[in-house]
Design a protein that fits this description.
By secondary structure, the chain is an all-alpha fold. It has four helices and no strands.
Length: about 90
């Protein structure tokens, strides 16, 4: 896999992991019992996006490490995926 392909896959996986990790640990204003006037009670309370970015980056590094191990260590590629599952020819 070339560097450009690796970066493209990294970016796609990072966005997926970001959207998966955004609701983790989220505290709403209703949970805290302190709703700011003019906002909905389901609005997030405090800052949590930085932690979500960090979680997404760590999860992406793990996924990309596994992908790197499969491509460099075992010599597999995306073209080998149909051959891994029987009957997918």
């Amino acid at each position: 896999m070339s560097l450009i392909s690796f970066l493209a896959v990294f970016l796609i996986v990072w966005w997926i992991m970001l959207f998966l990790s955004l609701p983790v640990g989220l505290r709403t204003q209703d949970d805290e019992g302190d709703v700011t006037l003019g906002t909905t009670s389901s609005a997030p309370r405090g800052r949590h996006v930085g932690r979500a970015f960090l979680r997404a980056t760590i999860l992406t590094l793990i996924v990309m490490g596994v992908l790197y191990g499969l491509t460099r260590g075992l010599g597999l590629s995306f073209d080998d995926i149909p051959n891994m599952v029987p009957g997918l020819d």
